[in-house]
Design goal:
The chain contains 8 helices and 14 strands. By secondary structure, it is α/β, with parallel strands linked by helices.
Amino acid sequence: MRPFKTFLICLLLAVSAGSGFAQEISPVGAIAQLDRDKLPGRRVKVAAICIGFGGKRDAKLKLAIEHLRTAGKNGVDIACLPEEFAGTKAEPVPGPTTKAVSKLAKQYNMYVICPIREQAGNKQYNTAVLIDRKGQVAGYYRKVFVFWGEGLHCSTEGVKAFDADFGRISILTCFDLNFAELWQECDALDVDIVFWPSAYGGGSPLNAYAVLYHYYIVPVGAGNIIDITGKTMENIEKPRPKQFIATLDLDRTFAHHDFNGKKVKKMLKEHKDEIRVERNLSKEDLAPWWLFKAVKPGVRVRELLKKYKIETLREYQHRSRKQINEARKKGKRI
């Protein structure tokens, strides 16, 4: 039996050594992130950390770091903190707050949206800083419509889009909710998700924007993450109070009934076990749209739509706007 015991001890030591190596590339206690190549569609795990606006900087930053650890240990790809979550003392980018948050982003291999009050030369902005998986500043969005009494400068840079490794995102902040042109610009920029760090919940206008422009919205006021159908998502994880995690499928795609009937019928027939129609024109919803979803690992709806020359609803709307406006300028009939 001794040789066998010796073998077991050696095996345990080898496993322990292997575990130690794994921990160098994956933090202790972390849950593996989504393996998108082995899943249907195009998945991303998001976290809304709704710890509120303002407060004492050190206490709020400590709380934010605790939440980011929780998000990281739950395999989140991108976490978003609220508007000016660590108080209203201005600082540069990079600065103390973004540097502290960057460490967590790098440790857990996740993107983090870190909203601060930014000191940029002699101007101050309400700024959401995007930090990438390596802990580097990947971009920023400065609030366009500053609320009365904030005492801050208004952005002159407008809406931006950021390309992450899982998809394309935009950020709008709090009072920006009230100005539809910003949300339409996110649509024009072809984004998959709009993150909305805020000092309040937002409510039904967010649901309206989501279905109108066919992107997900992640509000960071009340944690009411919103699906592209305009409905508040029900399947949300809550690993701790004030943190809301959801897995979004960025491949789910709308297509219009116009001009697509035969092509869609052919696609569904030839790929009946790979994709399904999640919603369609009905008495409950009179919008003449299909919503397609991949159900087989490795399958992408958008790749199939291209194969069958079916425009997405967004592509159809953008092309129609452009071509009809051109006809209008030239005085032509449609």
